[in-house]
Amino acid sequence: MPRIEDNARDEHFxxxxxxxxxxxxxxxxLENGYFGRMTRGVAQDYQRQVDFINRSNSVHVRQRFDGTxxxxxxxxxxxxxxxxxxxxxxxxxxxxxxxxxxxxxxxLQPGDQLLICDLEYHSVEYAMRWVAQQRGLEMIEITHAHxxxxxSLLNGYREAFTQHPRIKLMALTHVTxxxxxVMPVQAIIELAKEHGVDVILDGAHALGQIxxxxxxxxxxxxxxxLHKWIGAPLTLGFMYIDPQRLADIAPDMGSQHYPEPxxxxxxxxxxPNIPAWLSLPxxxxxxxxxxxxxxxxxxxxxxxxxxxxxxxxxxxxEVLTPDDPRLYCAITSLRFTHLDDQQPMVERLLKDYxxxxxxxxxxxxxxxxxxxxxxxxxxxxIHQLIRALRELAVG
Length: 395
Description:
Layout: H1 4-7, H2 11-18, E1 28-29, H3 40-81, E2 88-91, H4 94-103, E3 113-117, H5 122-135, E4 138-142, H6 150-163, E5 167-173, H7 185-194, E6 198-202, H8 214-217, E7 221-225, E8 237-241, H9 274-289, H10 292-311, E9 317-319, E10 331-336, H11 343-353, E11 355-356, E12 358-360, E13 368-372, H12 379-393
Parallel strand pairs: 1-11, 3-4, 3-5, 5-6, 6-7
Antiparallel strand pairs: 2-8, 7-8, 9-10, 10-13, 12-13
Helix pairs in contact: 3-9, 4-5, 6-7, 10-12
GO molecular function: transaminase activity
InterPro entries: Aminotrans_V_dom (IPR000192), PyrdxlP-dep_Trfase (IPR015424), PyrdxlP-dep_Trfase_major (IPR015421), PyrdxlP-dep_Trfase_small (IPR015422)
Pfam families: Aminotran_5
């Protein structure tokens, strides 16, 4: 039986997997961090569910989806994650889940402190700042040095907790959307607990490419997407709350749609994308058949390593994401060192080399170019990127 890490480099196997995705002619997509593709089979099932719900309308939704199917789907998702169904509430996206967790966290008093870093997603940062303003709290923000190391990340939080003993709640991004840095979540949460700090985990980019154990990591509150690395239709996400901590998150906007105690009252209420949710069992089955997050993550990292090894040898290019296997995944960022603004090079990559990438700003490392491989990315795509970087590095 081949090892998963060996299978990650089996081009024959992954070529067959890539053929499951329909890819339009045009630029090579190295911006797979925005959202993931559905396989052809999932897209067909989604369309079938759209047609079905359009025909059956509220008859099916009222009689089946609201009462039993939504609970069955939640249980299926919980089984994949190895958590209790009562710990999950379905949402439209990770941002909805995270914003609700932040604004409804009950353990804050005027004068307490909140902690964020320079790598949080904008909607998380905005929500934390809003809560601080509304409740008379102090915002503490730390920046992480680049290139980061496992110890430098831990030391950054250790120093923050020591210097600011009134921190009660912090945001923590598992996989940062700007540079692709993977945070040592379990170690940071253990450190936070020593200082009486609760953590709200942004897992939007982690689920589907990193194999993790939520209870084992000590996670109490988290939000996730299913339309990035799991491969579900857009508008699917969920909230996770450790059932023993449910009382620490108030019902969202006073929701009483379900008898208390119920995590579903903590999520924003509204009509969901029902056809998308009905397609999730097929999505999850394909994910598991492929080997789950471990197998997918190993493949994505192997593709990433192909171009990063070359990029690190090129003058004038700095790869910002470390090579410590604990700290990276599919997403990796670089910059051309002679430029402060990387957007012109994003445009060159697209215009001259047919490569779609994206510039990211806001972190202490400054403007960077995010390059994200995906499940349909081929070695030929990577070779095209390597050629572009070689030529652009020499001007």
